[in-house]
Amino acid sequence: MSILKRYIFKSSIFPFILGFGGFLLYANVFILIEVSSEIIRNDLSFWKMFPFIFYQIPRYIPQAIPVGVLLSIFWLLSKLESNNEIIALQVHGVKLKRIVTPFLILGILLSIFTFFLKEYVVPQIYRNRQAEIYLSSGIDKFQLLQDNRYLFMKRVYANRKELSGVFIYDIDSESNSMNIFYADEITFDNKNAHWDLSNMKVYSTLEDSRMVQQPITEKQKQMIMNDIDYYFLLTKKNMYNMTSQELLYIIQENKRRGVSNRESFTFEVELHSRYAQSLGPLVIAILGVPLSLALNIKSKAWSVIFTFLLIALYQGSTQWMAAMGRADRWSPWHINPILATWGPDLLFVIIGTFFYLLLDTQVLYVFKEWISKYSG
Description:
The protein is an alpha+beta fold. It has twelve helices and seven strands. It has two domains: 228 residues, no CATH class; 103 residues. Helices cover 65% and strands 13% of the residues. Strands 1, 2, 3, 4, 5, 6 and 7 form a seven-stranded antiparallel sheet that branches. The two termini are 32 Å apart.
């Protein structure tokens, strides 16, 4: 059996590189379109696009790996079928289920590599450098800080930690009152390591709808500093830059604050997607090998066609359900973020397990004869 494993691993290298490289090349076309428009609009040097593409490629490698795995499965098994090597193995007592094992080992190894890539490599290489250097766009909508508390800032200078036009609206729905915190400018006091709130003013509503200025308390100052830190926690990095621990911390902070909206769901989907997509090569192996043996594919052309059809279904369903997990709670499309990320993997594993159980059974032979009748 070790000879069979070595033969499968060695024969899988070329189709894996073909599928892996082909997908990356396809993805780079879209990156090139995006970069070229930016270069022309900003009158930049043509050579500026190559560093940008380099930093984008790691994002697409986890998606390219399942393509390489699936093409190597269909490509190699079609070769074995066309050369009658599958029949020869069965004649010598090798069960079809044993052919699945080398591909499962390959899938496990590539799943571990994919997780390492998504957890450690991509956060370090893919960086939103513009956001890290200078943030001047401010917030174009209210940022939910907690239940009935919102933040709005006109402008944010992240590189020197200055905030301009800061509003915090703290609404008490039970008493039908509101506190408005406002400051023209807030800066970070490096000496004392906290935000300088000396310019912060507090306005409170009264029962007759009038607003009066109130002195700010130490408790309110601490609340505002925590709110500003929370804002930077959400915005200082793109999600692709964050490790799983950083994402988990934000998710826990959102739950502590009672924030449950589209933005909070996005962090949950991203966290669980890292684990679900990391298992992509293994999931593809679980489904691809039994399905290829059941379909009795003998043509390399059909191997390529089935590869991209199955990958389109897998990655398309993954993206579709992830979008449903990120939807607002009031949306009829919204589903639980955990179910949204793990659903496609679970479905493909169930289908793959079904075909795996059919291997070496009379039902499979009947099914293959029926397929061969129409495929020739």
